[in-house]
């Protein structure tokens, strides 16, 4: 029995946490302190904060991965959720390991906008598209993150003659089409953009850079 207790303890999953990008919500964990046996399986449950009963996530019941997609189960983005994971090895089950409370609307990381560059001779015209959530409208298109937050776009220009890290903020606002004027012909300019959520005071990572020579 003591061996079993020890194994229970050693295989118990560690660091159970939600990670979320644009409401794609996944539960992650690390294997226990035992060197992970090949036959270790994991079992995932979730619930809304305040509910007494846990729900099994069937697709993550007896899996070998260390990640479970709970996007559909956590689609009410204002609700707080918990996830938990237990492990089994050699017929022995660990105790459950619990995540922290997770509220998608407050904690999801917002991605950068998609940037398309159209240039004329002394100006650059940018088209910005908000990141999209995994949730769909009735017609099937994915709902943009602008439906859930008031988003601003921050557009930065990098003049390659200058220092590579020298990004100049040239626009902040909610327009989807932006014109940057008075640029010099023959100079290489790169554009990056971020999404900014004023209500949460949070910015996305930079978009991938778009470079052009006028």
UniProtKB/TrEMBL annotation:
It comes from the Eukaryota. Residues 12-107 form the Fibronectin type-III domain. CDD domains: FN3. InterPro entries: FN3_dom, FN3_sf, Ig-like_fold, Interferon/interleukin_rcp_dom, Type-II_Cytokine-TF_Rcpt. GO terms for molecular function: cytokine receptor activity. It is found in: Secreted. One of its GO terms (cellular component) is extracellular region. Pfam families: Interfer-bind, Tissue_fac. The keyword Aminoacyl-tRNA synthetase does not apply. Keywords: Disulfide bond, Receptor, Repeat, Secreted, Signal. PANTHER family: INTERFERON/INTERLEUKIN RECEPTOR, INTERLEUKIN-22 RECEPTOR SUBUNIT ALPHA-2. Receptor for IL22. Binds to IL22, prevents interaction with the functional IL-22R complex and blocks the activity of IL22 (in vitro). May play an important role as an IL22 antagonist in the regulation of inflammatory responses. Belongs to the type II cytokine receptor family. This is Interleukin-22 receptor subunit alpha-2.
